[in-house]
Amino acid sequence: MFGRSRFLSFPMVIGAVVIGVVSGKAIFGPPLDEYWKKKLREEALAKDKDSSST
After folding, report:
1. What's the confidence (pLDDT) of residue 52?
2. Distances in Å between the alpha carbon of 1 and those of 5, 18, 36, 54?
3. Where are the transmembrane segments (predicted)?
4. For every residue of 37-51, which 3-state class applies, written as one string?
């Protein structure tokens, strides 16, 4: 089938990592940003509620 060497070449590994990071940010970036904005907003509201109640 394909001629496989014993180890992957370094440029192929770097290329795969770059493709993985870029595609991961494209796929998961917007939902994660939205999640963290919502989470920080909830924590700020909880902190305001705690400080106003004491």
Report:
1. 72
2. 13, 27, 46, 72
3. 7-28
4. HHHHHHHHHHHHHHH
